[in-house]
Amino acid sequence: QVQLVESGGGLVQAGGSLRLSCSASGTSAIIFRLNVMGWYRQAPGKRRELVATITLPGNTDYADSVKGRFTISRDNAKKTVYLQMNSLKPEDTAVYYCKMGINDEYWGQGTQVTVSS
To answer: According to the 3-state scheme, what is the secondary structure of 38-92?
Structure first.
């Protein structure tokens, strides 16, 4: 059974940085590297939204709201995907989730990011 565990969330002041990690278990490194990995977030009272994705060749895509501030990367040998978040804003406050694959089958439990003004 695939499990995804996020870490790295916390409380940070506006303008600060955080680095989120999402580690996968229950799958091989080969299977992991074949899957697109994504970061999503859900703020209170709002729908979950896509933040960033990274594919097998390393192609990345970002929500307009985070372009130029966030960077997604992956280490396939470690079966881990990262989200480097710089120049954080209060509106980035949310629970951040990682997802493996294109379906909605494999999600992490989420990590809270709170940005104070």
So the answer is: EEEEECCCCCCEEEEEECCCCCEEECCCCCCCEEEEEECCCCEEEEEECCCCHHH
Spatial separation of the C-alpha atoms in residues 70 and 90, rounded to whole Å: 14
C-alpha angle with apex 113: 12 to 92, nearest 5 degrees? 85
Q: Are 40 and 48 in contact (CB under 8 A)?
A: yes
Has residue 93 got a pLDDT over 90?
yes
b/e map of 78-115 (b: 16 or more CB within 10 Å)? ebbbbbebeebeeebbbbbbbbbeeeeebbbebbebeb
The neighbouring-strand residues paired with 100 are 37, 106
pLDDT per position as a tens digit, 49-60: 999 999 977 899
Task: Report the amino acid identity of residue 85.
Answer: M
**Contact of 20 with 31, CB cutoff 8 Å:** no
What end-to-end distance do the CA atoms of the chain give, in Å?
A: 40
* CA–CA distance, 96 with 111 (Å, rounded to integer): 5
